[in-house]
Amino acid sequence: MSPGHGTSGGAEQRRFARVPINLEGYLGVGERPPVPCTVRDFCLGGMFISADPAAYASAAPQSPAVLYFALMLDGEKRDFQLQLAVARVVAKGVGVTFARADDEAIPLLAQLAAPAAEPPAADDDVARAAQTAGFDAVFASVREPLQTLAAEHVGTLVESFLERVDEVLFARARDAGNNADETRFIDGQREMRGRRQQVREEVPPKIAEAIRILGNPLSSAQRDPQSLGLSDLSLIEKDEFEDFLAISEMVSELEPEFQQPLWELSRRFSHLANREVTDSSNPIGPGVLCNAVAESLKGLQSERSVTAVVYEVLRGVMSRHLEAFYAAVNALLVEHGVLPVIERDKPAVRRRPAPGTGFDAAEGEDAGADEQEQLADLMPGPEDYQGRVAPAPAAPLPGHVAAAMPAAPPGATTGGS
Q: pLDDT tens across 74-93, in order?
Protein backbone atom coordinates (compact mmCIF):
# COMPACT_ATOMS: atom_id res chain seq x y z
CA MET A 1 0.00 0.00 0.00
CA SER A 2 1.01 3.60 -0.16
CA PRO A 3 3.81 4.66 2.16
CA GLY A 4 2.39 5.73 5.49
CA HIS A 5 -1.00 4.27 4.67
CA GLY A 6 -0.90 2.08 7.73
CA THR A 7 0.33 4.67 10.21
CA SER A 8 -1.92 5.67 13.05
CA GLY A 9 -2.64 8.99 11.43
CA GLY A 10 -3.49 7.39 8.09
CA ALA A 11 -5.85 4.89 9.68
CA GLU A 12 -7.71 7.62 11.54
CA GLN A 13 -8.05 9.69 8.36
CA ARG A 14 -9.96 6.93 6.57
CA ARG A 15 -12.94 8.60 4.87
CA PHE A 16 -14.36 5.93 2.61
CA ALA A 17 -17.29 4.52 4.52
CA ARG A 18 -18.94 2.03 2.17
CA VAL A 19 -22.54 3.23 2.22
CA PRO A 20 -25.18 1.01 0.57
CA ILE A 21 -27.37 2.90 -1.86
CA ASN A 22 -30.03 1.90 -4.38
CA LEU A 23 -30.24 4.32 -7.27
CA GLU A 24 -31.67 3.49 -10.67
CA GLY A 25 -30.22 5.21 -13.69
CA TYR A 26 -28.43 4.77 -16.99
CA LEU A 27 -24.73 4.10 -17.45
CA GLY A 28 -22.85 4.94 -20.61
CA VAL A 29 -19.28 3.64 -20.91
CA GLY A 30 -17.06 4.99 -23.67
CA GLU A 31 -18.94 5.23 -26.94
CA ARG A 32 -21.52 2.59 -26.02
CA PRO A 33 -25.17 3.65 -25.67
CA PRO A 34 -26.36 4.07 -22.07
CA VAL A 35 -27.98 1.03 -20.45
CA PRO A 36 -30.11 0.67 -17.29
CA CYS A 37 -28.03 0.33 -14.14
CA THR A 38 -28.22 0.30 -10.36
CA VAL A 39 -25.77 2.15 -8.13
CA ARG A 40 -25.19 -0.27 -5.24
CA ASP A 41 -22.50 1.33 -3.10
CA PHE A 42 -21.28 4.88 -2.65
CA CYS A 43 -18.26 6.50 -1.06
CA LEU A 44 -16.49 9.82 -1.49
CA GLY A 45 -14.04 8.14 -3.85
CA GLY A 46 -16.59 6.71 -6.28
CA MET A 47 -19.26 4.08 -6.71
CA PHE A 48 -19.92 0.44 -7.48
CA ILE A 49 -22.51 0.02 -10.23
CA SER A 50 -24.35 -3.08 -11.47
CA ALA A 51 -25.46 -3.20 -15.10
CA ASP A 52 -25.56 -5.50 -18.11
CA PRO A 53 -21.94 -6.78 -18.28
CA ALA A 54 -21.94 -6.29 -22.05
CA ALA A 55 -22.00 -2.54 -21.41
CA TYR A 56 -18.62 -2.47 -19.68
CA ALA A 57 -16.96 -5.89 -20.02
CA SER A 58 -14.23 -4.68 -22.39
CA ALA A 59 -13.78 -1.22 -20.88
CA ALA A 60 -10.19 -0.33 -20.06
CA PRO A 61 -9.22 1.42 -16.81
CA GLN A 62 -9.74 5.18 -16.99
CA SER A 63 -12.31 4.82 -19.77
CA PRO A 64 -14.79 7.69 -19.57
CA ALA A 65 -18.31 6.95 -18.40
CA VAL A 66 -21.46 8.91 -17.65
CA LEU A 67 -24.14 8.17 -15.06
CA TYR A 68 -27.60 9.57 -15.77
CA PHE A 69 -29.85 9.67 -12.72
CA ALA A 70 -32.67 11.68 -11.18
CA LEU A 71 -33.50 12.79 -7.65
CA MET A 72 -36.59 14.18 -5.99
CA LEU A 73 -35.56 17.38 -4.21
CA ASP A 74 -38.31 18.88 -2.07
CA GLY A 75 -40.89 17.22 -4.29
CA GLU A 76 -39.35 18.38 -7.57
CA LYS A 77 -37.66 15.93 -9.92
CA ARG A 78 -34.24 16.91 -11.21
CA ASP A 79 -32.07 15.03 -13.71
CA PHE A 80 -28.30 14.79 -13.30
CA GLN A 81 -25.32 13.67 -15.35
CA LEU A 82 -22.17 12.64 -13.51
CA GLN A 83 -18.85 12.27 -15.31
CA LEU A 84 -16.99 9.13 -14.25
CA ALA A 85 -13.88 7.11 -15.00
CA VAL A 86 -13.73 3.31 -14.94
CA ALA A 87 -11.53 2.07 -12.10
CA ARG A 88 -12.09 -1.67 -12.26
CA VAL A 89 -14.36 -4.09 -14.10
CA VAL A 90 -15.53 -7.21 -12.26
CA ALA A 91 -18.08 -9.93 -12.90
CA LYS A 92 -20.88 -8.33 -10.87
CA GLY A 93 -20.36 -4.69 -11.76
CA VAL A 94 -17.99 -1.84 -12.46
CA GLY A 95 -16.13 0.37 -10.02
CA VAL A 96 -15.98 4.00 -11.06
CA THR A 97 -14.32 7.11 -9.71
CA PHE A 98 -15.54 10.67 -10.10
CA ALA A 99 -13.80 12.17 -13.12
CA ARG A 100 -14.98 15.62 -12.15
CA ALA A 101 -15.64 16.95 -8.64
CA ASP A 102 -19.32 17.83 -8.88
CA ASP A 103 -19.99 19.89 -5.76
CA GLU A 104 -23.78 19.50 -6.12
CA ALA A 105 -24.44 15.92 -7.27
CA ILE A 106 -21.94 14.14 -5.02
CA PRO A 107 -23.20 15.64 -1.72
CA LEU A 108 -26.76 14.84 -2.83
CA LEU A 109 -25.80 11.21 -3.43
CA ALA A 110 -24.22 11.12 0.01
CA GLN A 111 -27.45 12.49 1.46
CA LEU A 112 -29.49 9.89 -0.44
CA ALA A 113 -27.32 7.12 0.97
CA ALA A 114 -27.61 8.43 4.53
CA PRO A 115 -31.12 7.04 5.24
CA ALA A 116 -29.78 3.52 4.71
CA ALA A 117 -27.19 4.06 7.41
CA GLU A 118 -27.90 3.25 11.02
CA PRO A 119 -27.10 5.93 13.62
CA PRO A 120 -23.77 5.46 15.37
CA ALA A 121 -23.79 3.76 18.73
CA ALA A 122 -25.25 6.02 21.37
CA ASP A 123 -22.99 7.33 24.12
CA ASP A 124 -25.49 7.24 26.98
CA ASP A 125 -28.06 4.80 28.28
CA VAL A 126 -31.01 7.03 27.42
CA ALA A 127 -29.97 7.39 23.79
CA ARG A 128 -29.21 3.67 23.53
CA ALA A 129 -32.65 2.84 24.88
CA ALA A 130 -34.24 5.21 22.35
CA GLN A 131 -32.59 3.28 19.51
CA THR A 132 -34.57 0.15 20.41
CA ALA A 133 -37.74 1.72 21.81
CA GLY A 134 -39.92 0.67 18.89
CA PHE A 135 -38.76 -2.94 18.71
CA ASP A 136 -41.24 -5.78 18.98
CA ALA A 137 -41.67 -7.00 22.56
CA VAL A 138 -40.36 -10.48 21.69
CA PHE A 139 -36.93 -9.00 20.97
CA ALA A 140 -36.30 -8.76 24.72
CA SER A 141 -36.44 -12.55 24.98
CA VAL A 142 -34.66 -13.39 21.73
CA ARG A 143 -31.79 -10.91 21.93
CA GLU A 144 -29.57 -12.79 24.40
CA PRO A 145 -29.74 -16.23 22.70
CA LEU A 146 -29.40 -14.51 19.32
CA GLN A 147 -26.23 -12.71 20.37
CA THR A 148 -24.84 -15.88 21.94
CA LEU A 149 -25.45 -17.84 18.75
CA ALA A 150 -24.03 -15.07 16.59
CA ALA A 151 -20.93 -14.77 18.79
CA GLU A 152 -20.29 -18.49 18.38
CA HIS A 153 -20.55 -18.39 14.58
CA VAL A 154 -18.68 -15.10 14.18
CA GLY A 155 -15.88 -16.39 16.39
CA THR A 156 -15.60 -19.53 14.26
CA LEU A 157 -15.65 -17.46 11.08
CA VAL A 158 -12.91 -15.11 12.35
CA GLU A 159 -10.66 -17.96 13.44
CA SER A 160 -11.17 -19.76 10.15
CA PHE A 161 -10.31 -16.59 8.24
CA LEU A 162 -7.12 -15.93 10.22
CA GLU A 163 -5.98 -19.53 9.93
CA ARG A 164 -6.70 -19.74 6.22
CA VAL A 165 -4.99 -16.40 5.47
CA ASP A 166 -1.86 -17.64 7.21
CA GLU A 167 -1.89 -20.88 5.21
CA VAL A 168 -2.47 -19.21 1.86
CA LEU A 169 0.16 -16.49 2.32
CA PHE A 170 2.68 -19.12 3.42
CA ALA A 171 1.90 -21.17 0.29
CA ARG A 172 2.22 -18.10 -1.94
CA ALA A 173 5.63 -17.31 -0.46
CA ARG A 174 6.77 -20.92 -0.81
CA ASP A 175 5.69 -21.10 -4.43
CA ALA A 176 6.88 -17.62 -5.42
CA GLY A 177 8.86 -17.47 -8.62
CA ASN A 178 11.37 -14.91 -7.38
CA ASN A 179 12.82 -13.49 -4.17
CA ALA A 180 10.83 -10.26 -4.39
CA ASP A 181 7.47 -12.08 -4.44
CA GLU A 182 8.60 -14.46 -1.70
CA THR A 183 9.55 -11.52 0.53
CA ARG A 184 6.31 -9.72 -0.29
CA PHE A 185 4.13 -12.63 0.87
CA ILE A 186 6.28 -13.40 3.92
CA ASP A 187 5.96 -9.77 5.00
CA GLY A 188 2.21 -9.96 4.41
CA GLN A 189 1.97 -13.12 6.49
CA ARG A 190 3.90 -11.43 9.29
CA GLU A 191 1.67 -8.37 9.18
CA MET A 192 -1.52 -10.44 9.24
CA ARG A 193 -0.22 -12.40 12.23
CA GLY A 194 0.29 -9.07 13.96
CA ARG A 195 -3.37 -8.19 13.27
CA ARG A 196 -4.84 -11.40 14.66
CA GLN A 197 -5.69 -10.11 18.10
CA GLN A 198 -7.11 -6.88 16.71
CA VAL A 199 -9.44 -8.79 14.39
CA ARG A 200 -10.52 -11.06 17.25
CA GLU A 201 -11.22 -8.12 19.52
CA GLU A 202 -12.96 -5.80 17.03
CA VAL A 203 -15.16 -7.95 14.79
CA PRO A 204 -17.42 -9.78 17.33
CA PRO A 205 -18.38 -6.57 19.22
CA LYS A 206 -19.37 -4.90 15.93
CA ILE A 207 -21.72 -7.76 15.13
CA ALA A 208 -23.07 -7.74 18.69
CA GLU A 209 -23.82 -4.02 18.31
CA ALA A 210 -25.44 -4.67 14.92
CA ILE A 211 -27.78 -7.19 16.54
CA ARG A 212 -28.53 -4.81 19.41
CA ILE A 213 -29.75 -2.11 16.99
CA LEU A 214 -30.94 -4.63 14.36
CA GLY A 215 -29.08 -2.73 11.68
CA ASN A 216 -25.75 -1.84 10.17
CA PRO A 217 -23.55 0.12 12.61
CA LEU A 218 -20.82 0.58 10.00
CA SER A 219 -22.72 2.28 7.19
CA SER A 220 -22.69 5.79 8.59
CA ALA A 221 -21.33 8.40 6.22
CA GLN A 222 -19.45 9.74 9.29
CA ARG A 223 -19.97 13.37 8.38
CA ASP A 224 -22.66 15.80 7.28
CA PRO A 225 -23.10 15.34 3.50
CA GLN A 226 -23.89 19.04 3.22
CA SER A 227 -20.37 19.82 4.43
CA LEU A 228 -18.65 18.01 1.56
CA GLY A 229 -16.44 20.18 -0.57
CA LEU A 230 -14.32 19.74 -3.66
CA SER A 231 -11.21 19.44 -1.50
CA ASP A 232 -12.51 16.18 -0.03
CA LEU A 233 -12.11 14.39 -3.34
CA SER A 234 -8.42 15.27 -3.53
CA LEU A 235 -7.79 13.25 -0.36
CA ILE A 236 -8.73 9.95 -2.01
CA GLU A 237 -6.06 7.26 -1.86
CA LYS A 238 -6.03 4.67 -4.62
CA ASP A 239 -5.39 1.76 -2.23
CA GLU A 240 -8.32 2.68 -0.02
CA PHE A 241 -10.65 2.91 -2.99
CA GLU A 242 -9.41 -0.52 -4.11
CA ASP A 243 -10.44 -1.85 -0.69
CA PHE A 244 -13.88 -0.29 -1.21
CA LEU A 245 -14.23 -2.02 -4.58
CA ALA A 246 -13.01 -5.35 -3.20
CA ILE A 247 -15.65 -5.34 -0.45
CA SER A 248 -18.40 -4.13 -2.80
CA GLU A 249 -17.58 -6.90 -5.26
CA MET A 250 -17.49 -9.48 -2.47
CA VAL A 251 -20.86 -8.44 -1.08
CA SER A 252 -22.43 -8.33 -4.56
CA GLU A 253 -21.42 -11.98 -5.02
CA LEU A 254 -22.38 -13.24 -1.55
CA GLU A 255 -25.87 -11.71 -1.35
CA PRO A 256 -27.23 -13.64 -4.39
CA GLU A 257 -25.49 -16.80 -3.16
CA PHE A 258 -27.56 -16.72 0.04
CA GLN A 259 -30.61 -14.97 -1.38
CA GLN A 260 -33.30 -17.17 0.21
CA PRO A 261 -31.98 -17.37 3.80
CA LEU A 262 -31.10 -13.65 3.69
CA TRP A 263 -34.62 -12.82 2.56
CA GLU A 264 -36.05 -14.83 5.46
CA LEU A 265 -33.67 -13.18 7.93
CA SER A 266 -34.46 -9.69 6.67
CA ARG A 267 -38.19 -10.33 6.99
CA ARG A 268 -37.81 -11.62 10.53
CA PHE A 269 -35.47 -8.81 11.56
CA SER A 270 -37.90 -6.32 10.00
CA HIS A 271 -40.64 -7.77 12.16
CA LEU A 272 -38.48 -7.47 15.29
CA ALA A 273 -37.22 -3.96 14.51
CA ASN A 274 -40.59 -2.66 13.30
CA ARG A 275 -38.90 -1.11 10.26
CA GLU A 276 -37.64 -2.35 6.94
CA VAL A 277 -34.36 -4.29 7.21
CA THR A 278 -32.72 -4.88 3.83
CA ASP A 279 -29.81 -7.11 2.86
CA SER A 280 -27.44 -4.16 3.25
CA SER A 281 -28.69 -3.30 6.76
CA ASN A 282 -29.15 -6.91 7.91
CA PRO A 283 -27.08 -7.15 11.12
CA ILE A 284 -25.53 -10.46 10.07
CA GLY A 285 -25.72 -9.91 6.31
CA PRO A 286 -22.62 -10.17 4.08
CA GLY A 287 -22.34 -6.37 3.96
CA VAL A 288 -22.06 -5.96 7.73
CA LEU A 289 -19.83 -9.02 8.23
CA CYS A 290 -17.41 -8.20 5.40
CA ASN A 291 -17.18 -4.56 6.43
CA ALA A 292 -16.57 -5.50 10.06
CA VAL A 293 -13.55 -7.56 9.05
CA ALA A 294 -12.37 -4.92 6.55
CA GLU A 295 -12.54 -2.22 9.24
CA SER A 296 -10.28 -4.27 11.49
CA LEU A 297 -7.79 -4.62 8.60
CA LYS A 298 -7.69 -0.97 7.55
CA GLY A 299 -4.23 0.55 7.42
CA LEU A 300 -2.46 -2.62 6.23
CA GLN A 301 0.85 -1.68 4.63
CA SER A 302 1.18 -4.83 2.54
CA GLU A 303 1.19 -4.41 -1.22
CA ARG A 304 -1.97 -4.78 -3.30
CA SER A 305 -1.03 -8.29 -4.45
CA VAL A 306 -1.04 -9.38 -0.80
CA THR A 307 -4.22 -7.60 0.28
CA ALA A 308 -5.98 -8.98 -2.79
CA VAL A 309 -5.17 -12.47 -1.53
CA VAL A 310 -6.47 -11.54 1.95
CA TYR A 311 -9.83 -10.43 0.52
CA GLU A 312 -9.97 -13.50 -1.72
CA VAL A 313 -9.58 -15.69 1.36
CA LEU A 314 -12.26 -13.71 3.21
CA ARG A 315 -14.66 -14.26 0.32
CA GLY A 316 -14.09 -18.03 0.43
CA VAL A 317 -14.44 -18.25 4.20
CA MET A 318 -17.70 -16.30 4.12
CA SER A 319 -19.06 -18.56 1.41
CA ARG A 320 -18.27 -21.70 3.43
CA HIS A 321 -19.62 -20.50 6.78
CA LEU A 322 -22.67 -18.33 6.10
CA GLU A 323 -25.09 -21.08 5.10
CA ALA A 324 -24.86 -22.80 8.50
CA PHE A 325 -24.89 -19.42 10.28
CA TYR A 326 -28.06 -18.24 8.56
CA ALA A 327 -29.82 -21.57 8.98
CA ALA A 328 -29.09 -21.55 12.71
CA VAL A 329 -30.32 -17.97 13.20
CA ASN A 330 -33.50 -18.54 11.19
CA ALA A 331 -34.19 -21.68 13.25
CA LEU A 332 -33.64 -19.76 16.50
CA LEU A 333 -36.02 -16.98 15.47
CA VAL A 334 -38.68 -19.49 14.44
CA GLU A 335 -38.24 -21.26 17.78
CA HIS A 336 -39.03 -17.94 19.52
CA GLY A 337 -42.11 -17.42 17.39
CA VAL A 338 -40.71 -14.76 15.04
CA LEU A 339 -42.65 -15.24 11.79
CA PRO A 340 -42.63 -19.07 11.77
CA VAL A 341 -44.45 -18.85 8.47
CA ILE A 342 -43.48 -15.98 6.17
CA GLU A 343 -46.19 -14.80 3.79
CA ARG A 344 -44.40 -13.29 0.82
CA ASP A 345 -47.09 -10.70 0.06
CA LYS A 346 -47.67 -9.64 3.66
CA PRO A 347 -45.57 -6.78 5.11
CA ALA A 348 -43.26 -7.92 7.91
CA VAL A 349 -43.41 -4.47 9.54
CA ARG A 350 -46.59 -4.35 11.62
CA ARG A 351 -46.62 -0.67 12.47
CA ARG A 352 -44.49 2.43 12.86
CA PRO A 353 -45.48 4.00 16.19
CA ALA A 354 -45.25 7.73 16.64
CA PRO A 355 -42.31 8.92 18.77
CA GLY A 356 -42.80 7.98 22.39
CA THR A 357 -45.72 5.61 21.79
CA GLY A 358 -44.01 2.22 21.59
CA PHE A 359 -46.02 -0.95 21.03
CA ASP A 360 -48.74 -0.11 23.55
CA ALA A 361 -50.29 2.30 21.06
CA ALA A 362 -53.88 1.68 20.03
CA GLU A 363 -54.51 -0.68 17.14
CA GLY A 364 -56.05 2.18 15.22
CA GLU A 365 -52.61 3.75 14.93
CA ASP A 366 -51.23 0.82 12.96
CA ALA A 367 -49.68 1.73 9.63
CA GLY A 368 -51.69 0.57 6.66
CA ALA A 369 -50.45 -1.73 3.93
CA ASP A 370 -49.99 1.15 1.50
CA GLU A 371 -47.70 2.98 3.91
CA GLN A 372 -45.64 -0.16 4.49
CA GLU A 373 -45.23 -0.69 0.74
CA GLN A 374 -44.03 2.90 0.34
CA LEU A 375 -41.53 2.43 3.16
CA ALA A 376 -40.25 -0.78 1.60
CA ASP A 377 -39.91 0.82 -1.83
CA LEU A 378 -37.89 3.82 -0.65
CA MET A 379 -34.74 1.72 -0.21
CA PRO A 380 -35.36 -1.53 -2.12
CA GLY A 381 -32.84 -4.36 -2.00
CA PRO A 382 -30.86 -5.01 -5.22
CA GLU A 383 -32.16 -8.37 -6.49
CA ASP A 384 -30.63 -7.92 -9.93
CA TYR A 385 -28.90 -5.29 -11.98
CA GLN A 386 -32.11 -3.60 -13.09
CA GLY A 387 -33.21 -3.11 -9.48
CA ARG A 388 -36.75 -1.88 -8.82
CA VAL A 389 -38.40 1.37 -9.63
CA ALA A 390 -38.88 3.34 -6.43
CA PRO A 391 -41.78 5.81 -6.55
CA ALA A 392 -41.18 9.20 -5.03
CA PRO A 393 -42.78 9.82 -1.61
CA ALA A 394 -46.10 11.61 -1.78
CA ALA A 395 -45.16 14.39 0.63
CA PRO A 396 -41.38 14.78 1.00
CA LEU A 397 -40.05 16.73 3.93
CA PRO A 398 -38.08 19.94 3.36
CA GLY A 399 -34.54 19.09 2.34
CA HIS A 400 -35.54 15.48 1.62
CA VAL A 401 -33.64 13.66 -1.13
CA ALA A 402 -35.19 10.59 -2.76
CA ALA A 403 -34.33 8.51 -5.80
CA ALA A 404 -36.34 8.86 -8.99
CA MET A 405 -36.19 7.31 -12.46
CA PRO A 406 -34.43 9.57 -14.96
CA ALA A 407 -35.63 10.15 -18.47
CA ALA A 408 -33.85 7.80 -20.88
CA PRO A 409 -30.87 9.63 -22.42
CA PRO A 410 -30.55 9.75 -26.23
CA GLY A 411 -29.68 6.37 -27.69
CA ALA A 412 -30.23 4.54 -24.41
CA THR A 413 -31.08 0.86 -24.29
CA THR A 414 -34.16 0.77 -22.10
CA GLY A 415 -34.77 -2.98 -21.87
CA GLY A 416 -32.99 -5.58 -19.74
CA SER A 417 -30.24 -7.87 -21.00
A: 889 999 999 999 999 987 89
